[in-house]
Amino acid sequence: MRTRLSDHVKDRLGTFGLMAPSVAQCAVGAALAWLAAIELLGHPRPIFAPISVLICVGVGLGQRLRRVIELVVGVSLGVGVGDLLVSWIGSGAWQLALVVALAMAVAVLLNSGALFVAQAGSSAVLVATLVPGEDAGGLDRMADALTGGVIGIAAVALLPASPFMIAAKHLSGVLDALSTVLEQAAAAIEKRDVELAAEALEEARNTQGAVEEFEAALETSKEIAMISPVHWHRRARLARYETAAVPVDLALRNARVLIRRTLASLGEVSPPPAALAEAMREVSEAALLLQLELGAGREPTLARQALLAVAARERPAQLGFSAHVIIAQLRSVVVDLLQATGMGNEEATAALTPLDEPSGGNTHRR
């Protein structure tokens, strides 16, 4: 129990360290946007300026440049609809409902993006409740939003989180998951343990969230590297993560099929031989090598060599149907990871030992 708590605390501290630059960007950017709108634009209460910084920078992962555009247009739409209707029908509960409904309806018709629609609705709420009767008009609030967006982008460029660390942390989670489920499947074959195989399958089915988080993190990393001069020199290192993104996703998908067949095979008369477990374990270790080499900013040559050794291995003789399917899926995982190291599909496929007969496996492209 104490070990789990310690691991949880370490994980939370690691996440905070990763997100600390975004927190600093939000805090500094919000204050600067407020001051800029007051001192440079002469707006007495520029509430949209700091709000726009928080939305554009955020503390999560996403596309900040697109956020700026959606923010400004969404705020303008909400302010415009709100100002127009409030000037006609006044303020109150039913007026608020009508203003929000119309602003969000127009936003949905123009752009179904969640941020765009939410900004239109929230801006309409502010116009209909907090700010009617003040001197500031729709154009002033639009200028506040634009000011906050520009300062938000400047904060990302001048106080940037490390794009390399963001991508590395999330790909590490994906490769850890792949290595773990392959190791569990290998152990299930060796021990003839159906429950362990079922646990591995359940864990494998829960890995897609890690893949999606990595994809979002990679987009954010690419955006930071493009915006921030501080990290322009890291683009080459980041390119390795771009190369690995799709193949690693495919490797996890094939691993799920492999583990599902492993579970089924343990109930058959002729379960898979221990040699298959050994091959799985070697691929599991190669995934960890790939994680370490990418994290160190190196060309993943050791991981590639380990995978090529598995690819060149002769398969065991006299295998049953399930074992053939498991081998087919394991071969697919190997090819996927070879592509993640930078090899082309044809070259990676050619590295596999030819099969004497069709395996009956359902691979995604081999």
Helices and strands, with pairings:
Elements: H1 2-39, H2 48-57, H3 64-89, H4 93-110, H5 114-129, H6 138-158, H7 163-191, H8 194-205, H9 208-227, H10 235-265, H11 274-295, H12 301-311, H13 321-340, H14 345-350
Helix pairs in contact: 1-2, 1-6, 2-3, 2-6, 3-4, 3-5, 3-6, 4-5, 7-8, 7-9, 7-10, 7-11, 8-10, 9-10, 10-13, 11-12, 11-13, 12-13
Main location: membrane
Coiled coil: 187-217
Protein name: Aromatic acid exporter family protein
Structure commentary:
It is a single chain. By secondary structure, the protein is mostly helical. It has two domains: 2-158, no CATH class; 163-350, Methane Monooxygenase Hydroxylase, Chain G, domain 1. The protein is 77% helix and 0% strand. The chain is built from 14 helices and no strands. The longest helix is centred in the first third of the chain and has 38 residues, at 2-39. The radius of gyration is 27 Å and the shape is elongated. The two termini are 45 Å apart. The model is unreliable at 357-366 (pLDDT under 50).
